[in-house]
Amino acid sequence: MTSFGKLVEEQLPRLRRYALALLRDPDKADDLVQDTVLRALEKKHLYQPDTNLRAWLFTLLHNQHVNRVRQLVRQGPTVNIDDIQAPAPATQMRRLELNDLDRAVARLPHDQRTVLLLIGLEGMKYDEVADILGVPVGTVRSRLSRARADLRVMLSEEPGASQSLPSRSERAAREQRAGRANQAASIGL
Question: Which residue ranges does the chain devote to CATH 1.10.10.10?
Fold first, then answer.
């Protein structure tokens, strides 16, 4: 195996972890990682040795994922009836909380979920994520902030509450009310 191949191989667990968090299906995640590695090997002449290989591979993975999503949108939705299973009742509170978090993350808009997973799960820096997604660092920060705020709202909802995310105007109104409450508390009201 070449030295480039060994460097790529070292990144496989991180690529798979991110793909699994992104797709929520081990088989599809493995396919995405495999396609990403094939693409990396085909395009290794484009990699600049003194740059961040991890960020380059994550960019390839992200682009492969976006291409697949676009292809699926063109094809339309498909559901395999054999894959549908009734959820098993969880017995531990921690497991229920993790399931709630998993569902809440899945409900986030794609751009927010991507930033949250790259920073929170993969531990990447804001500037690395900005390079991978091709957006300014400020956009990464605002997406992460919105993702965290939306997660707080979703995780504080009562069971059976509305499944929609707050709009920007609802979020702004909530933040304004919180600001007034903080002001009142700071002056002793």
Answer: 92-160
CA distance 35 to 163: 34
Instruction: Say whether domain 1-77 belongs to CATH 1.10.1740.10.
Output: yes
pTM as predicted: 0.55
Q: Could you tell me if 57 and 40 are in contact, meaning their C-beta atoms sit under 8 angstroms apart?
A: yes
% of the chain at pLDDT higher than 70: 75
What CATH number labels 92-160? 1.10.10.10
Distance separating alpha carbons of residues 171 and 150, to the nearest angstrom: 9
State pLDDT tens for residues 31-52: 999 999 999 999 999 998 889 9
* Rounded distance between C-alpha atoms, residue 41 and residue 6, angstroms: 11
| Helix-, strand-, coil-residue percentages of the chain, each rounded to 5 | 75, 0, 25
